Amino acid sequence: MKVHQLYPIQFKPIFKEKVWGGNRLCTILNKNCDPTKPIGESWEISAVQDNISIAENGFLAGNNLQEIIETYLTDLVGDKVYYKYGIEFPLLIKFIDANDTLSVQVHPDDHTAKFRHYAYGKTEMWYVIHAEPDAKLYMGWKHDMDRQTLLKSLDDGTIAEHLNVETVKPGDVFFIPPGRVHALSKGIVVAEIQETSDITYRLYDWGRVGLDGKPRPLHVDLAIDVIDYKAYDNYKISYKPELNKTVQLVSCEHFTTNLLEFNRIIEKNYLALDSFVIYIVVEGYFALEYYKKQRIELKKGQTVLLPAEFSEVKLLPFEKSKILEVYIENINLNVQNSLETFFGEGRIV
Predict the structure, then answer these.
(1) Which residues contact 169 (CB under 8 A, 6 or more apart)?
(2) Domains of the chain in sequence order
(3) Is 308 within 8 Å of 77 (Cβ atoms)?
(4) Which pairing describes strands 91-98 and 173-176: parallel, antiparallel, or unpaired?
(5) Measured distance CA(120)–CA(137) in Å, rounded
(6) Please, what sign has the CA dihedral across residues 19, 23, 28, 33?
């Protein structure tokens, strides 16, 4: 039963050491992590089993995300979101620091993931926050592929010759549907928005060993059936930033992500949205005003969850700022996605 009014909720980051990780989450995004350790990921909001986010501000501090949804239900996530997902929060929000090239990987769709793992699939997107000069990533194929060619390239270590290579800069956006092969490379920090899932199939890992000194497992047999073998003309999302205006980056069934760059007071009205809203701060410093008199301050590298019951908020910049605004609006209510409270065992990149 509710006893207090909801407010913008911040969660304790869950840091993940990775063999390819670095220290940019500490130095660029001001995370309170150990800069001597290879921190590859900061899970900002998570409902993945054994990695459920813990609130760190306000009266809900110490409660996990699932407990908060169980108490506040539609007031927190919205009517349609709750109808479809129940107490399972549907999105996983991360920051990723690639200090080396990640494995070449692919993710299954919802149908395959449910059948194989009793988990959600993984539709995701990247927003590039930082990129070293000439930083690159792998996204899709440079030409149409087939299974036989793929298996041969994995066997002889020539898969990179078939992968499409993108030179990236801050502000670049990539949408990654299930089935699309991809890999971040050295010198890139991204914000990642994805379904609540930790299912990743590794195709190729560049011959390296993991943090335990052993080769990391590959999942070629699982991956081969989910890969999209078609090459596409363009893998990068095209958009035009407009100062003090909300610009849509990606909109799909699982999430909508907008970009807002602002240097003056911005008023947002979410009365008709019927969804929680997540702000991911990628630049700047501003105050978030809610209930017309209460405020919290947000800086680069911070993430906050706005309850669905919020109708209006105001953003007051102390300096030019930039946020990703994430919510769910294109819900197919004819498909009941809830997996109750159990997620299958995933595989981590």
Answers:
(1) 128, 131
(2) 14-204+212-223 (2.60.120.10), 246-327 (2.60.120.10)
(3) yes
(4) unpaired
(5) 25
(6) positive
> CA 224, CA 151: separation in Å to the nearest integer?
9
Burial of 156 (0-12, 13-18, 19+ CB in 10 A): exposed
d(CA 267, CA 269): 7
Distance CA 266, CA 194 (A): 27
Residues counted in the chain: 349
Q: Which of 49, 128, 118, 85 is nearest to 255 (CA)?
A: 85
Distance set, CA 67 to CA 1, 92, 175, 267 (Å): 11, 17, 31, 30
Report pLDDT digits (tens) over 124-166: 999 999 999 999 999 999 999 999 999 999 999 999 999 999 9
pLDDT at 249 over 90: yes
**Distance (Å, whole) CA 188 – CA 176:** 17
Which two tokens mark 311? 């109708």
CB-neighbour burial class of residue 38 (10 A; exposed 0-12, middle 13-18, buried 19+)? middle
The pLDDT-based confidence of 342 (bands split at 50, 70, 90) is very low
Do residues 91 and 77 lie in contact, with contact meaning Cβ atoms separated by under 8 Å?
Answer: no
Residue 301 backbone class (left: φ over 0; alpha: ψ -120 to 50; beta: rest): left
Stated pTM of the model: 0.94
Contact partners, residue 148, CB within 8 Å, separation at least 6: none
What are the pLDDT digits (tens) for 169-188? 999 999 999 999 999 999 99
Inter-residue contact 137 to 188 (CB < 8 Å) = yes
